[in-house]
Amino acid sequence: MKEIARQLGISITTVSRALQNHPRIGLRTREKVQELAERLNYIPNSTAISLKKRRTFNIGVVLPYLTEQFFSLAITGIEDATIDKGYSVLVVQSRNDFERERTAIRSLIRHGVDGIVVSVASGTHTYRHFDRANEHGIPIVYFDRVIKRLHSSCVYSDITSGAFEAVDFLVQKGLTNIALLNGPMTLQATDERLNGYARALQKHEIPVNRHYIVGLNLTREDTLKKTAALLDLPEPPQAILAFHDYIALDAMEVCRQRGLRINEDIFFVSFSNLSFCSYLEHPPIASIEQFPYEMGEKAASLLIEAIEHPDQQTRQEVVMQPQLVVR
Amino acid sequence: MKEIARQLGISITTVSRALQNHPRIGLRTREKVQELAERLNYIPNSTAISLKKRRTFNIGVVLPYLTEQFFSLAITGIEDATIDKGYSVLVVQSRNDFERERTAIRSLIRHGVDGIVVSVASGTHTYRHFDRANEHGIPIVYFDRVIKRLHSSCVYSDITSGAFEAVDFLVQKGLTNIALLNGPMTLQATDERLNGYARALQKHEIPVNRHYIVGLNLTREDTLKKTAALLDLPEPPQAILAFHDYIALDAMEVCRQRGLRINEDIFFVSFSNLSFCSYLEHPPIASIEQFPYEMGEKAASLLIEAIEHPDQQTRQEVVMQPQLVVR
DNA sequence: CTGTTAGCGCCTTCAC
DNA sequence: GTGAAGGCGCTAACAG
């Protein structure tokens, strides 16, 4: 800017205004300035602007794993919702580790993001780090793995209803012995899933067999072991509802090894609907699509809302309806 | 800082120095400052620091798709290599679109990143936008889909050798009719792959059958169609080398539909080694692992090198050896 | 060991 | 319509 001002023999102020299309600036001046700026391929220093405006136009995203397609789709939604509003996205992976998440948030605060979208790590047990962000005036929107806080919006899917529909679907196919490979009890979604499962069985007056309900700890070994245990039951399940496609895949492997034919001797339904399931010879017969892209998109626009209108504290809770996709 | 200075009755400078553990500051003063800062849960305004230091400690990453596991692994490598040096990562997806890539770079420049890591979009045909970054003093490191520029380092894998080994492996298994499902001719890697393929055949004195060499355009339909054409040849291939696991999967589907048994009637080897291949009942018998994580890591550290020592323009070209993983 | 001063690049009253 | 001056929060000579 200084350079432009010098070359044109005008003041920096004028340059600044010309560049912003300030109304009360001479048309000729404006044109000359903009043209010269172009020629010098001037790019405004956003650091300086940030300092002045107290906005960086960066938003932070903290989520467990980018390698999970669910989250990379979510990020894409976030990107699409923010990019043309001029925001850039800072991504940090928590790897489901509390400590990592904490430092991630801290680092984002230091980097001066205008807001944060987070999907809480499964290892997180206290929420002080999030409050810190809020205390610094940084709004947070939670998605997928949400926690419900006073002033923060969140968007998540209705797991209960997803599980309900899945089980309902299986029962209507004539399957009554349905097992549930559920997540760790620390996650809220685990409860909801159980809920939907139980409610669907109840609807059809099928008694809940507690041996069919299994809590997994996210390690592959655990999944393999507990699936094997299920199959060893005197009355093994005819169908399995898995809380994640990956879990279903691991479980299917166990079944195959025992000579069970997928989608004949035993049926699978799982959450998430990873695109690569379509490459499988025997994919789960149904998946519960949770629309990660849309979730990310929604979360991001709520965040931008919160950033740009900090006054009107309209906390929102958006519940997305999952959809049973039958193959 | 002002607040701390006021409360302690000292100058802002002293506070600043105390916070940075400046050596020539009174121990007592320092402690008092740091303690108060803690209590006020003061977080330095990095925007201001950036303005002063002319560094944002942000680095940009531009790549085609985060949803491809290859790239999300690369990002993870980048993250790990930068995070503890105090950098944050701004991610933008180009979706292989030139225009998107261009705006991405532009936006990163505006946001004042200290450097950029990029995997060039397949749709990119001119490199002016990259030069722009360089003109603004922003170093770039290319990885995977690299272009070779005067002052920019790059890291990529030795596709030729990967293809060579793959074909060599197949021949040693007694397979001689080997087709190559290659990428679009616009990508440099496509050439190299062809090269390795041809060289391996040559080594075993197998003539190159040009009907076996197929250029794909990255759409699924194209893959299906051209694979079918391969199988329709008077002498169909016994094995297929695919330039990507996803391509192999699509091609395998075609084979299956025709009643060919994977890994019996026809064999597959592909590049990339996606983790989910292990879930397949009949995965490619071998994959060419390209170590995306390590590539990202390396690219990022080269970038940091370039950022922190802008004087010593040591352009580096790192070639990673891929590895044939036999299942 | 500590304070004074100037300035990073830009925006924004306020004055002309 | 344009310019001068001050300041965003912090750092870094330069003085004591």
UniProtKB/TrEMBL annotation, chains A, B:
It comes from the Bacteria. The keyword Thylakoid does not apply. Residues 1-53 form the HTH lacI-type domain. This is DNA-binding transcriptional regulator, LacI/PurR family. InterPro entries: HTH_LacI (IPR000843), Lambda_DNA-bd_dom_sf (IPR010982), Peripla_BP_I (IPR028082), SBP_2_dom (IPR025997). Keywords: DNA-binding, Transcription, Transcription regulation. The keyword DNA-binding applies. GO terms for molecular function: DNA-binding transcription factor activity; transcription cis-regulatory region binding. CDD domains: HTH_LacI (cd01392), PBP1_LacI_sugar_binding-like (cd06267).
